[in-house]
Amino acid sequence: MPRKLHLNAFLMSVGHHEASWRLPESDPYASWDVKHFQNLARIAERGKLDSVFFADSPVLQGDPGRRPAGKLEPTVLLTALAAVTEHIGLIATASTSYNEPYNLARRFASVDHVSGGRAGWNIVTTAGADAARNFGLDDVPAHRDRYERAAEFVEVTTKLWDSWTDDAVIADKDAGVHADAAKVRPINHRGRWFRVDGPLNVPRSPQGWPLLVQAGSSEDGRQFAARYAEAVFTAQQTLAEAQAFYADLKQRAAALGRDPDHIKILPGIVPVIAATEAEAQELDAELERLISPEYARRQLAERFQLDPADLPLDEPLPDNLPTEDEIEGAKSRFTLIVDLARRENLTVRQLIGRLGGGRGHRTFAGTPEQVADTIEDWFHSGAADGFNIMPAVLPSGLTAFVDQVVPILQDRELFRTDYEGTTLRDHYGLPRPVNSLELTTV
Amino acid sequence: MPRKLHLNAFLMSVGHHEASWRLPESDPYASWDVKHFQNLARIAERGKLDSVFFADSPVLQGDPGRRPAGKLEPTVLLTALAAVTEHIGLIATASTSYNEPYNLARRFASVDHVSGGRAGWNIVTTAGADAARNFGLDDVPAHRDRYERAAEFVEVTTKLWDSWTDDAVIADKDAGVHADAAKVRPINHRGRWFRVDGPLNVPRSPQGWPLLVQAGSSEDGRQFAARYAEAVFTAQQTLAEAQAFYADLKQRAAALGRDPDHIKILPGIVPVIAATEAEAQELDAELERLISPEYARRQLAERFQLDPADLPLDEPLPDNLPTEDEIEGAKSRFTLIVDLARRENLTVRQLIGRLGGGRGHRTFAGTPEQVADTIEDWFHSGAADGFNIMPAVLPSGLTAFVDQVVPILQDRELFRTDYEGTTLRDHYGLPRPVNSLELTTV
């Protein structure tokens, strides 16, 4: 069977472009309207996409004047989507720095139960002092500490998911024995960051473990992904960089004894689609015109740990930027943005325009045919196992992708014409984890 | 308008009776099947009930051999029910001892958004060392500390719910201003237990605040309820005790300057319903016969801080029980159980039978007419504003209540014949909280 693409729809408010809410077509209240997201999930399912995904952070991100800020809590949102869909995978971000593993393990297991095996967890450590200050801390913990905690968090979580064997419930009405108590075990975890007895208070879920996703590309992030991630969302601006990242991550996974095919790599792409290339570029330009640059400049200054006044809009980036080592979060994104500005010799205003669509993800304006071509090109060039589709405007950008690009990919036999399995793991071609408890009690 | 009853369906697995899963009619896997609960919520909505409710604790409670253990995470479950219902309120328990207020405030606000204003939070402090050991602690924190933390937790949570004014989002597309940043404010909470900057990352929800529910009846619990609760679920075995509790709680609320009508008191009742009284008692007896007493004896011994061998099945409770002061959780339930056993001179085996249906809640076996009579009696005797209906067997016990008891209550003009409002607060006749932020910024 020829290798097939994996396609995830990364959904955000009324589109990834920061000005999308200002278009006449956009409902600026849609961010908190579950019907909007239910509609999007149904469109994505119509396109036979592998999954939908929601990014998240436990803090109000950015100035609420700039664009729709605040989001429905993601496990609540995924559940609302599970209720109106049958096949599509449901992935959301949750933080290992600001949750307890017992609670989060249970929440994702519950979403996996209610969705019939369609849950996925994008594991993040959460950069930013503002999030820390919602949880009793003065500042964000150090990058290395966050990743160390994240690794232990995932260990605890997966042990909790394995704390019931798949056959623990026997439901013997005559004998009056509901579950075999020997198959429901405490985990008695004792580590640097967590002490958790268990067992979990929900049986093992349909997928065994919800799908583990990761999206950080720093050195710590890559090593974490190589060890734990089954799907990786990544921002890559050029084919060469994407190839290097892809090769590096597959090699790291193999070095850890994993099957490199069990870690699927999906670069982000912000497709701006129209019938002609000129129309697509006009839509892109219209969105760029609607950006209020002051908001974006403030955010850029914060990322660079500078004052906004140090970033004159019509000059190139200053020379005195910090190094990646001096940045305490979103390290690889910092480097990507600096590289992009320097490589294309952009002014601050131009850089803001380039980041407006995908915050560092690759924007591509073109016809459905051209979008399909670039997807196929990267897919066949060792740069991707699939793509994280990030429509600039929603729902119209998702509809355009599903109704115009997906059929081309299907005609080229690059993408499924129907779902072949029932779980998110089935869609991504990933195995169901063997229960570590069963292994140790055989 | 004559005073009307409030009816909440307290739902648990395939029924509150611990042996309900052993009946031929029961699906022993239903505890983790969202369709089971969606069916129950629809039945309750057909009966025009105010709400459904799910108790919870972040620990696997009891022996998994005894009966269906483990539950779907409640905010996930409520969301799944919101998707298939239109009117009924959706209440669940969450712990103030083992959550972060930022995360929990957001989760309940999100359920309120996705349900169009139907969310309620039963605030508990969580007794038991086993739960503590899932969160890095060796033992449960002291009762007084748990309640002090709970009070501060609720303060933080309500401030977060008020951190956006109701009119903060202006969505001015022309000016490029999405929300008025002056109406989205940090809370900068600094207390003994929490430091939380805010604002919340979701706008104020339809109800302003999800409904605040409480269920503890100890001295600390009553004072907490009097200050914060808008609905109280309580276990009362006799009319006299229920009247005393009702009067005490209303008086405490008034003493704190609250309108006593804004705290609704709902004793629990486990109705076992059949066409004749004899048939109802036979169903009750059949359930009692299906109890495996060893499990229940172990639990009783744990509650009394004794060894199971100290509780011979066919003897009365021993004299050397601890006092309520020596108990570190579920204090009032402890006293209720001891009083019940002593008052009726029950053996341990008989006590186990009496607790099998409702764990201390009042069980009442009778005809629909008799169930309606006792509800009316308590309602008109200053003992209740409504009832927490706890079917012994599900779905059949709920169906019987909705189809056979509710019509009688409606005929007697004691209960609504249709929903008159859209939110959970509407159903309970409770006001929407004024935003404290708006009050301070007028």
UniProtKB/TrEMBL annotation, chains A, B:
One of its GO terms (molecular function) is oxidoreductase activity, acting on paired donors, with incorporation or reduction of molecular oxygen. InterPro entries: Diverse_substr_monoxygenases, Luciferase-like_dom, Luciferase-like_sf, NTA_MOA. Residues 29-383 form the Luciferase-like domain. Pfam families: Bac_luciferase. This is FMN-dependent oxidoreductase (Nitrilotriacetate monooxygenase family). Belongs to the NtaA/SnaA/DszA monooxygenase family. FMN binds at residues 56, 93, 143, 147, 217-218. Keywords: Flavoprotein, FMN, Monooxygenase, Oxidoreductase.
